[in-house]
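DOMAIN: structural biology
WANTED: fold as tokens
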Amino acid sequence: MRAYGGSERIFAKDCEDLAAWVPEGEAIPLANSMEDFTKHAVDSHKLAAFVKLDNDFVHNTTFDFDVYLTGRMARCFARAEDSGFLTGNGIDQPTGLLHPEKGAETGVTTSALTYDDVVKLYFSVKPEYRRNGVWLMNDETALTLRTMKDGNGNYLWNHSDNTILGKPVEISECMPNDKNGKTPILFGDFRYYWIVLRSPVTVKRITELYVSYDQTGYLAIEFLDGKLIRREAVKALRIVA
């Protein structure tokens, strides 16, 4: 979402919308849900990336420098955002999906990753969130699940379309491995994790500081926040001793 301008902190509201059958001539029960809102503070955290390049490279007319710089900055931001949206502590950075109190709810706890635990995690999510459910894990966990079979020798992972129980799998190397105290798998409807952009990305060209080295610096800054607005929409599998 884009929420440019305004104060440094805004508030997002979430509620459980309900529909009720009303007999003809009876009052519609609107008042019961008028204050049924959960308020979430959305802050404005600064994310910055800096690149320093030699001027002979910057001014090379045979090379599309703008495309190169945009791609390089995008990769820098993508890695930092990926980490923040998963592991951020909410202090000067987003509140990540793995935050123990404000992130995904724990759906399954287990001492070792098994076929049954993955199935239990799937069914720990309410049907309304399973409908658009997505699995999230790192490569090492994905490899474990790719080779996992049930008692009849059937693979848990559908290798033809890379799904588990009919739901797609996304990979992030910021997800932890299946070690004690870690959360190697998330599953649910990630649309309830709101990423709010507070200002467009700005890029400043810095020449004076590096003139003696015949170099130019480029500083890119964006302001944004991320929060899981409805915790029950995403569940976590946690490894415990």
Summary: The chain has a mean pLDDT of 90. The CA atoms of residues 32 and 158 lie 45 Å apart. Helices lie at 55-58, 65-87, 115-124, 127-130, 139-146. The radius of gyration is 23 Å.
